[in-house]
Amino acid sequence: MAVHLAFLITVCLESVRSINTGIRGTGPWLAMLLGVKTERGADIMHIETLEIGDTIVRVSGAGQPLVFVHGFTTTAEFWRGQVEAFSSRYKVIRINLPGHGVSPRPAGRSYTIDAFANDVLQVFRKLDIRQAVLVGLSMGGTIAQSFTLAHPERVQALVLVGATPHGLGEDVNVDNVLKAIDDLGVVQASQNVIDRSFGSAASQELLNFARQEVAQTPDFVAREAIASLNASDSRSRLGDIRVPTLVVVGNEDIITPPAESVILAEGIPDSRLEVVENAGHFPMLEQPHKFNEMLAAFLRACEDPVSQASGQGLSQHAI
Questions:
Q1: Closest Cα partner for 148 from 274, 27, 296, 269?
Q2: Strand 245-250 versus strand 155-161 pairing type
Q3: β-strand 48-52 against 245-250: which pairing, if any?
């Protein structure tokens, strides 16, 4: 009897693990029957995995779309702390950019800011998203700016996390990154950047997770993407971004220093700057509770027509 029970529990747990990696099966039903939790302690929720063009997209929840775009060599899993918090009210769409994470990396395409913005547009079209709140991290913030300027009718509001209009820290300067790739190989070069990206409060588990994720981006993708990111410059067009915008930066961020976020917030007319204490380049991972509170408050303000019309709560610089 004990052997049979142990076998049943093992099968159930393996099914739950399958769901956590995007494999469909009996996991949700068994999890509900047994009250099994995910590794992060949350109840099992349905996450759909879609292949759209050269992207792998994770979709959960229902309602107003929230589209999340990650940064250079990172992945959609860097938004893991937002899935449960926002899927109960919004349709959470996390894009793995081409050449990043589990997404395809065909040799015959471009891995530039403009190409990535076109990939985001393809996701919007495939999922029939007329308008969404667009959230971009680091290079994803550059992509989000480009997308908003090119397709303003598709963006209800914009969130820029650890982003920049142009300036970058030494660790992601194109010459330094390319030299590191030449000297160390792309995996070690990417992991060295990760080691310097987190704030002082980050756990070793978080560092290990991030190091594992960035190891998936191949050499040729990283080279083209970092060159395009360094060349991108939106400073002269920030005033053309005419949607409510939340700018978020960690006070210990040395990859895209807080001064760059100040430039964004001062240049975008309807913007608010929030600085997350005890966080580096990834405040949504390092301080998810604080970050989620900021994002939720911003989303509520965007949904309030009085607040949106007056700009109240959307143009303060919390610095």
A1: 269
A2: parallel
A3: unpaired
Residue-level pLDDT at 44: 56
What angle is formed at CA 164 by the lines to CA 265 and CA 304, rounded to 5 degrees? Answer: 40
Q: Which residue has the tokens 């400073």?
A: 235
Q: Write out the two tokens for 275.
A: 């600085």
Question: Which residue stretches of 105-257 are H helix?
Answer: 113-126, 139-150, 174-184, 186-195, 204-214, 219-231
Nearest to 55 by CA among 105, 11, 12, 8: 105
**What are 82's two structure tokens?**
């937002």
Sheet holding 155-161, edge to edge: 48-52, 55-61, 90-96, 64-69, 132-137, 155-161, 245-250, 271-276, 317-318
Counting as low any pLDDT under 70, the low residues of the chain are 1-44, 305-319
Q: Angle 88-10-32 (CA atoms, 0-180°, nearest 5)?
A: 30
- Note the pTM of the prediction, 2 decimals: 0.84
Burial zone of 2 (CB within 10 Å; 0-12 exposed, 13-18 middle, 19+ buried): exposed
- DSSP assignment letter at 249: E
Distance CA 97, CA 217 (A): 10
| H or E stretch at 90 | strand 90-96
